[in-house]
Design goal:
The chain is an all-alpha fold. The protein has 3 helices and no strands.
Length: 89
């Protein structure tokens, strides 16, 4: 599965700091609050989330933290799939 086209994502305008907190703060969900606000009005939020549930273990994607996506995977019995580097292009 190739990564969907997320070039219209609102996150592209603000950088990654709000979506990928440093490792010592990753468990602190307050670090994601501004990123979640950006995602809330994004036109590609659902495509982003669909991709992330299957492929992303870190960072805020589709308005959801890694823990929130993990809960979805557990509920729907979805395994995190490995990513081939070329899929990000």
């Amino acid at each position: 599965m190739n990564m969907p086209d997320l070039t219209q994502g609102q996150c592209r305008e603000v950088g990654s700091d709000f979506f990928y907190p440093d490792s010592e703060n990753e468990g602190d969900t307050s670090m994601y609050s501004f990123g979640k606000k950006i995602c809330a009005g994004c036109q590609v939020k659902q495509q982003c989330l669909d991709w992330a549930v299957k492929h992303e273990g870190y960072g805020l994607w589709g308005g959801m933290t890694p823990r929130e996506r993990m809960a979805i995977r557990r509920k729907l019995n979805i395994k995190l799939e490995s990513i081939i580097p070329g899929e990000y292009t």
